[in-house]
Design brief:
disordered N terminus, elongated, 161 residues, two-stranded antiparallel sheet, alpha+beta
């Protein structure tokens, strides 16, 4: 059975289930969407070509699946807030992700990410700490765009837990 405890580290108490992290706002940039699409092999498609996007019925480049996770990860350090745990990135592993889209986001859209820690649990005598984070992505007016779910693992050497 797993131990449950707030996320702790060398700097003291950290996050616990129910902790609402600092929301952040991101504007989706067309150039980044084109780059992301080309990196994952989406060449000359509605995700990389404004012309193809318009032909497919979009007003601009649509956001491809998983792109929102990249935006969240990029801003994750800010989302912990000034009182959040300081964790060595070499000890963090991304173990799970899922998402549910409510409506399509496009280049130029402003999106608000509102993350919440929904669970924290430990395994293997405290050397493995799992942090479950759920993030609502909305437009500034509150319209739901997507729900993101991720689980990260923080490795703690024996004797540090």
């Amino acid at each position: 059975m797993a131990d449950t405890a707030p996320w702790t580290n060398a700097t003291g108490p950290g996050l616990s289930p129910g902790a609402r992290l600092t929301p952040f706002t991101v504007t989706v940039e067309r150039g980044r969407l084109k780059f992301f699409g080309s990196v994952i092999g989406l060449k000359d498609t509605e995700f990389t070509s404004p012309e193809r996007a318009r032909e497919a019925g979009h007003h601009d480049l649509p956001v491809p699946p998983t792109f929102l996770f990249g935006l969240e990860l990029e801003h994750q350090a800010d989302a912990w807030g000034p009182d959040g745990p300081q964790v060595d990135p070499s000890r963090v592993l991304h173990t799970e992700q899922s998402f549910r889209y409510h409506e399509t986001a496009h280049a130029g859209d402003e999106l608000v990410f509102s993350p919440v820690i929904t669970d924290v649990y430990r395994r293997r005598a405290g050397t493995m700490e799992f942090v479950v984070r759920d993030t609502a992505v909305t437009r500034p007016d509150g319209t739901a765009v997507a729900d993101l779910h991720q689980v990260i693992l923080v490795r703690h050497p024996a004797g540090e837990q």
